[in-house]
Protein: FAD dependent oxidoreductase domain-containing protein
Amino acid sequence: MSTNIIVVLGAGVSGLTSALLLSKDPANQITVIAKHMPGDVDVEYCSPWAGANYLPFGAEGSRLGKWEKATWPHLQYLAQNCPDAGVEFQGATVRVRNKDKNSTTGKWTAELTKPSPWYRTVVPDFANIPSHQLDPGVDNANYFTSVCINVAVYLPWLLSQCRRRGVEFKRAIVSHVVDAATAHHSGKTADLVVNCTGLSSMTLGGVDDKTLHPVRGQLVVVRNDPGSMHMISGTDDGDGEGTYTMVRPAGGGTILGGSYQMDNWDPNPDPNLAIRIMKRCIELCPSLVPQGQGIEGLSVIRHGVGLRPLREDGPRVEREKIGRFWVVHNYGHGGYGYQASYGCAETVLELTAQVLSQKNHCNL
Ligand code: FAD
Structure:
């Protein structure tokens, strides 16, 4: 059996999921190389900041929509069978106000909040909420069963699953993507590098993708537990501000979001925005606090900021030959890195097979 020498560059959800699926083929010898690993907290490392949930944003028939559709069965499987993964089912209500249609968050959530979205046949329990049950100012709303992922549990779980299948992990910072090809734990030059560097692909040598943008997401993590997930298409507090809540399973606290601030690199939580987020979340989900209380009824664990790696044409999952090295890219997942993770990693497998078949053909 020939051996395939593979380096995965990046240990966020994209790199770990790619490594995990690649590791199911025993012919693949994999090293994951990264500046940040699960357990690290850094604004350059997006994955620990995500909620994370499954609220599809891709248009019907788009590549993103297909990746999100392909990911649901995996998350459903984990929620049903793997309590150690930190993924649990959770009821989600998404509300739309027609006046948000042309706002940043209205466009972001346009597919999600459609009355008859493509995902209605994918997730369980999809239903339109009858108009007489809508909150004041809300024009329509959908309910379905989503999942919430406790990323503080899930990222180490992905790493441990990789380790069980022989994947090696190494800390390193590379300045050019092909430098990763010579960092495999075996000392051999890699047959290919899987580039999962998220927003850093903007400046990584050999990639330099200037169509990437940071989309700043600020959140508050609280101990209060409303037991369900909520989102609305916009706010009256200005473009780029949003409102959503979800309860991380296994004691992970409740995420209060948020913001969707394009090209804003500020890593520090804005205290005024934090107050607006908390107020809006209570308005959206009153059961967050005891009846009659406002933000004083919230028990805050921490404030945080993450930068979503948004790419203008959507995630880049494609192969490219750079000099004599093959690279399979998997970056640019905006606010959908978890909910598209398995779909994208399956495409990485297909592209990897194409690259390796050329190698094996040349070796004949
Ligand atoms: P990252 O997690 O940023 O990982 C990049 C990796 O590459 C790191 O290991 C880093 O160290 C490494 N790296 C980079 N450059 C180098 C280098 N030069 N050398 C070595 N290593 C390098 N998504 C959802 O699906 N659902 C949600 O509910 C959701 N909520 C979100 C809420 C917020 C507030 C935010 C900020 C994001 C949210 N997202 C959500 C989006 C999701 O978090 C991202 O799409 C995802 O984490 C991107 O993962 P990644 O692995 O591509 O990048």
